[in-house]
Design brief:
Layout lengths: L1 E7 L6 H13 L4 E6 L15 H12 L5 E3 L12 H11 L4 E6 L1 H6 L14 E6 L6 H15 L3 E5 L7 H9 L10 H10 L4
Parallel strand pairs: 1-2, 1-4, 2-3, 4-5, 5-6
Helix pairs in contact: 2-7
C-alpha cells in the first residue's frame, strides 16, 4: 500500500487539513492517508497545546469518519516520550515493510527539516511530500531547497500543489476566544464537539 502520513497537533483539526490530505491522496494515487496526532512533539511546548490529547484524537475521528481512505494512527498520541519524526518513520518502515510511506510536510518544515533530530534517518524510510502554495512560496526557491536536500541526504522529495485555505489552528483558537464565527472552517461534527465541550474559551 501507498500510505500518506499527516502529523500534527490538530488543535483543532480543520478543513485545511482535510483539503491537504485529499490533495495528496489524489495527486500521488495513495491508498490511505493517516492522520497522526502528536501527544508530545519536540518542537512545541506543551503549554502551547490547548486541548487534551483525548479531545484532539476525538476531533480527528469526527473529522475523517465519512472518508473511507482516511484513518487515524495513534502511535505518537499514545507515546509518553517525545515523538520524533525519524523514530516514527523507522517504526512504520520496520513494522510494515510491505508498504511505502509518504510523509506530508509544509513549506516551513521543508526549510527547517535539516535542523530536526536525525533528519538523515527520515529520508530512507519515506517519500517526503512538500506542500506548495504559489501565493505563499516561490516554486523556484522550493525546488532549489529540494535539490539541496536530495544531494545531501539522497532524499526523495516531491512538490505537492495544494489548495489555499487561509486559516490555521492557532487562528481558529483566537477566533473562538473572540467569539467570532468559525463553523465554515471546520467539519460540522468538529464544530459541534468544540461547542459542546466548550474548548478553547
Amino acid at each position: 500500500m501507498k500510505i500518506g502520513i499527516m502529523g500534527g497537533t490538530f488543535d483543532p483539526i480543520h478543513n485545511g487539513h482535510l483539503m491537504l490530505a485529499n490533495a495528496a491522496y489524489e495527486a500521488f494515487h495513495l491508498d490511505e492517508v493517516w492522520f497522526m496526532p502528536n501527544g508530545n512533539p519536540p518542537h512545541k511546548k506543551s503549554s502551547t497545546i490547548e486541548a487534551d490529547v483525548e479531545d484532539r484524537v476525538r476531533m480527528v475521528d469526527l473529522a475523517i469518519r465519512e472518508v473511507p481512505y482516511f484513518r487515524q494512527e495513534l502511535y505518537e498520541a499514545e507515546r509518553k516520550e517525545i515523538s520524533c519524526s525519524y523514530q516514527t518513520m523507522e517504526h512504520f518502515h520496520n513494522t510494515r515493510p510491505e508498504d511505502w510511506f509518504y510523509f506530508i510536510i509544509g513549506a516551513d518544515s521543508l526549510f527547517a527539516i535539516d535542523s530536526w533530530i536525525h533528519p538523515e534517518r527520515i529520508f530512507p524510510n519515506c517519500t517526503v511530500l512538500a506542500t506548495y502554495r504559489d501565493e505563499m512560496n516561490s516554486k523556484k526557491k522550493m525546488e532549489s531547497r529540494i535539490e539541496e536536500l536530495r544531494d545531501r541526504f539522497h532524499a526523495d522529495i516531491r512538490l505537492l500543489v495544494t489548495p489555499l485555505l487561509r486559516i490555521s489552528s492557532h487562528e481558529l483558537r483566537s477566533m473562538i476566544k473572540e467569539g467570532r464565527k468559525i463553523d465554515s472552517f471546520l467539519p460540522k461534527a468538529v464544530f459541534e464537539y468544540i461547542t459542546h465541550k466548550n474548548l478553547y474559551r
